[in-house]
Amino acid sequence: VRLVESGGGLVQAGGSLRLSCAVSSTDGISPIFSIYRMGWFRRTAGKEREFVARITWGGGRTDYADSVKGRFTISRDNDKNTVYLEMDSLKPEDTAVYYCAGQKLAVSEYEYWGQGTQVTVSS
After folding, report:
1. What are the DSSP calls for 35-84, one per residue?
2. 3-class SS of residue 1
3. What is the percent of the chain with per-residue pLDDT over 90, rounded to a whole number?
4. What secondary structure letter does DSSP report for 88?
5. How far apart (Å, rounded) are the C-alpha atoms in residues 23 and 6?
6. CB hemisphere CA count around 122 (13 angstroms)
7. Cα torsion at 62, 30, 26, 6 (round to 10°)?
8. Going by C-beta distance under 8 Å and a sequence separation of 6 or more, which residues neighbour residue 98?
9. pLDDT tens, 13-34?
10. For residue range 42-67, what is the model confidence (pLDDT) as tens digits?
11. Residues 6 or more apart from 69 whose CB is under 8 A from it?
């Protein structure tokens, strides 16, 4: 499975960005059958990687970190094999490299990772 993020950039505080994560398979099997859940994480220099949001591929159940709840929305398009992270009311502390990740089973670690996309929020 291959994950490719896009949509990062520079935005002023209070603005919005939408990140995309295109999911493709390397074995000819649809990612829908290979992945149980997709997640977004972020990392700032000098800090641990932080969970942001996640969504189950089939049922669309979502969970969010408290720091982004009410401002960020995760969604998926099964036809396009793409997961999105809509980020509104951005704050400077949201500045980070954002990564999407895929989890094969509910109890497994996130096995698949994208290369990351930079989001910078200016004050």
Report:
1. -SEEEEEEE-TTS--EEEEEEETTT--EEE-TTTTTTEEEEEETTTTEEE
2. coil
3. 77
4. -
5. 12
6. 4
7. -40
8. 5, 8, 19, 40, 41, 42, 52, 85, 116, 117, 118, 119
9. 999 999 999 999 877 777 777 8
10. 999 889 999 999 999 888 899 999 99
11. none
